[in-house]
Amino acid sequence: MAATGLAPRLNIVTLGVANVQKSRAFYEALGWRASSASRDSIAFFDLGGVVLALFNRENLADDATVAPAGDGFRAVTLAHNVESDAEVDAALAHAERSGARIVKPASKVFWGGYSGYFSDPDGHLWEVAHNPFTSLDGQGRLQLPPPELAS
After folding, report:
1. pLDDT number for residue 15
2. What is the mean pLDDT of the chain?
3. If 0-12 CB within 10 Å is exposed, 13-18 middle and 19+ buried, where does residue 12 land?
4. Is residue 149 part of a domain?
5. pTM here?
6. Average pLDDT of the residues in 83-112
7. How many domains does the chain have?
8. Which secondary-structure segment (H or E) carries 96?
């Protein structure tokens, strides 16, 4: 933790899933490799500096001491940015072949980019997007402009 508060960092995104093995198989069908730290009860995927974890939904809710979420919209989406519109189309097609449900086919969007959405077996929404106003570094990480300096 930074001396003045919480450091601006995200290390792990944990998705509460109905069946860890089924969800792990889906993400592996996308071509992702589970870490050797994965177990029957949890799966970990290195996403280039951020880890995606899959954990039983009820156990995750119990761990956080909250009621388990329903199957409705969770007000969260995950995003996978690529370098072209064609890559968006290819990624969505691959996700669908891997068992995803296409929620929104790719199209030009109001903010000037191109994107579509798929859902994993538990309904977690993934946006696949090409944003012509940002770039990706050599490892595929989104590059944001630096913060504005206070005057």
Report:
1. 93
2. 87
3. exposed
4. no
5. 0.79
6. 95
7. 2
8. helix 85-97
